[in-house]
Write a structure and sequence with these properties.
With 91 residues, the chain is mainly α. It is built from 4 helices and no strands.
């Protein structure tokens, strides 16, 4: 059972972020339990942000107005418009 392309890309990005943070933790000699808890929360936040951006692009492609998309994802209309512009440029 495979994942869709956007989900695979999200997992790849999160894995890269995780590896980068783990290397930094080791380099600084931080308490591993505390560091891993913070890292776990950071990865969750990154994942939520990625999913919001994917949702924004999907709703925009369906023709939903920016203000309604902003209400759905609980972000400012300015941020939603930025994500849409960035998403269209990446496609």
């Amino acid at each position: 059972m495979g994942f869709t392309k956007p989900i695979e890309q999200i997992f790849i990005k999160l894995s890269q972020v995780l590896l980068m943070h783990l290397k930094d933790i080791i380099r600084r000699g931080v308490n591993m339990c505390t560091a891993l808890e913070k890292l776990e929360e950071k990865c969750r936040e990154d994942g939520r942000q990625e999913m919001k951006q994917e949702t924004v692009l999907s709703l925009a492609n369906l023709g939903m107005p920016v203000d309604q998309i902003a209400a759905v994802v609980k972000e400012s209309a300015l941020m939603v418009q930025k994500w849409i512009s960035e998403g269209k440029a990446a496609v």
